[in-house]
Amino acid sequence: MTPTSDLDRVTMIVLRYMRRPLFALLFVYSVGILGMALMPGQVVDGETTRMNLFHAFYFFTYTATTTGFGELPNGFSDEQRLWTIFCLYTGVIAWFYAIGSLIGLVQHPHFIQAMDRFRFARKVERNVAPFVILCGFGDTGSLLARGLSDHHMRAVILDSDLERIKALGVRDYTVPMPGLHADASAPKHLLAAGVAHPACRALVTLTNDDDVNLKIAVMARHLNPRLRVICRSTSARHEANLRALDNVTVVDPFEIFAQLVYWAIARAELHNLNAWFVGVRGVELGAPLQVPRGDWVLCGYGRMGHCIHRHLQAHGIGVRIIDQDVDASEVGEGTVVVQAHADHSALGAAGIGDAAGVVAATDHDSDNLNTLLAVTAFNPEAFRIVRQNSHENQVAFDAARADLVLQHSLTTARRILKLLISPLVQELIDWLADREPVLTEELVARLQVAMGAAPPHLWSIRLVPGEAPAVTDYLADEGAITLGALCRDARAFPSKLPCEALAIRRAGRSIMLPKGERPLEAGDEILFCGVQWVEPMLQATLHNPYTLRYVVTGVDEPRGYLFTWFKDRFRGASKRA
Fold first, then answer.
1. Considering the domain boundaries, does residue 119 fall inside one?
2. Which residue from 95, 468, 425 is spatially nearest to 270, judged by alpha carbons?
3. Where would a tag sit more exposed on the chain, N or C end, judged by fewer CB atoms within 10 A?
4. Count of domains observed in the chain
5. Where is each RCK N-terminal domain found (predicted)?
6. Which of 267, 206, 214, 208 minimizes the C-alpha distance to 232?
């Protein structure tokens, strides 16, 4: 809905609810003023005086509001005083009626909703900074908004739950994040949220209904075909429809959860690197989880359990399943199945005593926490991975002290945040997952040497005239710049800045873990990981031609006019000699 139509709706509601009070005031004022002008006043020099219309209007204005400035411009006759009493009572009654109607108007839900939409649309329209539209503000949406705020990226939020939108007012975000209580699948609300706004970078659908997410994605593709859409989906049917749409990225929280479980069990070094990149609390680079080898007990065989079982089974990891509703024919041969709740007896029947660990993956937090207690009693050495469904139960899961807690809303929010802020990071992780672990270990060693114990800072640069003018001019005029030369420290040449280039995006393809001798080209996008102060240092190199020339050649070129003249003169003299 456009701001103009919102304003029209507000005006219509005001006129509808204030029409009678305004007519009542107009009638009382008209009768009072006319009556006061017609009432005979005092007799002066044998002639009866009367008020003119201006004086009558002035007198009635302050009398109807019970202000009372006296009898102006002259003393009143008894007739005028009697009419004044009538005007006073009728004016007060009319004003009480009008004020009461006005109070009722501002409290009317339709008026509040119309004003909220008008203000929301105006904020979005006036915004010039890049922003993302979030459709859905549950656990995942709230966590994603916090991550965007930490990266100083704005978001516009739509949600059908009024209480969630009200909660925006008490969040301490670093950037403005306007929200609207509305159906995000309605095109008018998507337009009001800025789906066609030039500063809109992406639309993320995070509602708990896959049908709604699909509808939002379809509407967004029609309203702005160039806009990137990231859609949460847990249904194979909806996922197939979404992948058929152009420029739509599908995120399945169950697949992400299962992938992280597999990495934690079989690719601990990759799980450690990924957790370090996304800033998981307490994770130290190069200190992966020490997970025992052997069979695993999987408690819960819903949609997430199916994904976990498929990932583990595909890589030769034995799984024993506990679920009351599991169908043994779906599991396959060779898998132990216990059709029961994950209580003490079921865990014993599944052989928890000699299992490497347990994955508590039901959709009830109380059941998962109860499973942890039972596992601790049976096998204290078992590795415990637990699924956390609700962010509100964080304190209880902290107290449970499981070896690994995976909150699927948090893991989904982190995956989407990587896609929005640094898409090359997820490409790198997926690329490493398909290669031998030694590549991941080598990258970890390089990052440890470059950064020490500093937390990771990820950023990307693009070698385009608007973002790296010195580099593009140098490439156009003089030729080659290598990646290693660009990363030199101008303050301590030829030392290297404490950072590592993780990937280069060039002409639609990605180059992972590029070497320092790789030549750069105009249009390259480079993903870096380093200490936070390195980014502004590198920005200075990208924008300052003298700094760039120094880190590339090691020669500090003269900068002033006089020194440049001396340089050219001596260069000419040396050539003649």
1. no
2. 425
3. C
4. 4
5. 129-249
6. 206
**pLDDT tens, position by position, 152-172:** 999 999 999 988 998 888 888
Flag the least confident range among 79-83, 113-117, 304-308, 314-318: 113-117
Residue 175: which CATH number? 3.40.50.720
Q: Within this chain, do residues 278 and 402 fall inside the same structural domain, yes or no? A: yes
- For residues 258 and 311, the answer to whether their CB atoms sit within 8 Å is yes
In this structure, the answer to whether residues 238 and 141 fall within a common structural domain is yes
- pLDDT tens profile 366-416: 999 999 999 988 888 999 999 998 888 989 998 988 999 988 888 999 999
With beta carbons less than 8 A apart as the criterion, state whether 394 and 388 touch.
yes
Coil vs helix vs strand at 520: coil
Contact assessment for residue 253 and residue 408, using Cβ atoms and an 8 Å cutoff: yes
Residues 242 and 260 both lie in one domain: no
User: Coil, helix or strand for 159?
Assistant: strand
Could you tell me if residue 428 is inside a domain? Answer: no
Mark 177-207 as b/e (b = at least 16 C-beta within 10 Å): bbbbbbbbbeeebbbbbbbebeebebbbbbb
Give yes or no: residues 348 and 223 share one domain: no
* One domain, residues 229 and 271: no
Q: What is the pLDDT of residue 3?
A: 46
Sign, CA dihedral 352-354-355-358, equals positive
Tell me whether residue 140 is in a domain. yes
Distance CA(110)–CA(459), nearest Å, equals 45
Cα 267 to the center of its chain, rounded Å: 29
Check whether residue 440 and residue 543 sit in a common domain: yes
Dihedral over Cα of 391, 395, 399, 403: its sign: positive
> Within this chain, do residues 455 and 500 fall inside the same structural domain, yes or no?
yes
Note the pTM of the prediction, 2 decimals: 0.79
Residue range 99-134, pLDDT digits in tens: 888 888 778 777 777 788 888 989 999 999 999 999
Range of 308's domain?
254-408
Residue 239 · residue 250 · CB < 8 Å: yes
